[in-house]
Specification:
about 180 residues, mainly alpha, globular
Amino acid sequence: MGAAEEGVEPGAQDDVGHDVEDTRDDPGQGDQEAQGADREFLSLERELSLLMRRARASSGEMARQVHPDLEPAAYGLLVCLDDSGPQRATDLAAFIGVGKATMSRQLRALEELGLVAREPDPADGRAWLIRLTPDGRTRFRTVRAARRAQYVRRLASWERTEVSELARLLGRLNASADT
C-alpha cells in the first residue's frame, strides 16, 4: 500500500504548510521521537525548515524588485553592504559563508548591474572595497522598506518585546552557526 493509499501524499503539507511525514518504513518512529527528549528540536527543525523555504522564496522576489536580473543569493550581499558600508570581498565571503569564486562571480554580476562598485581600500592600496552605488542603495532601500512594512503588518498583534526577543534569539542562533 502506497503513501497515497494511507492518506499521506508524497510531498504533502498540513493546513499550515508543514511537511507531512510518511513513516511507513518505520511505523510510530515519528511519534516516539516526538515524545522523547528531542521533541523541542524536532519542532525547531520543522519551523526553521518552513522559515528557510519561505525566506528563499522571499529573497528571490525581493532580488527581482531590486533588479530583474539580480540573483536571489546576492540580496544578502546588499544587506551586508547597506548595514556595514564598504567591505573587502574576502570579508563579504566570510560573512555570507561562501568561497572566493562564488563571491567573485556574485560581485561581478552586481557590478554589471550597476548596484555595486569597487574602490581602492585607503588602509591597504593593494586591496579593494566593495560599496553600494547610489542607484544600488536607492533600489535596495526601497525594497527593504517595503519588506519591513510587511513585517510590521504581519506582526501587528505582537508586543514589541516579543519582536525584540525573536530578533535576539535569531541573532543568537546565527551567531552559534559561526562556532
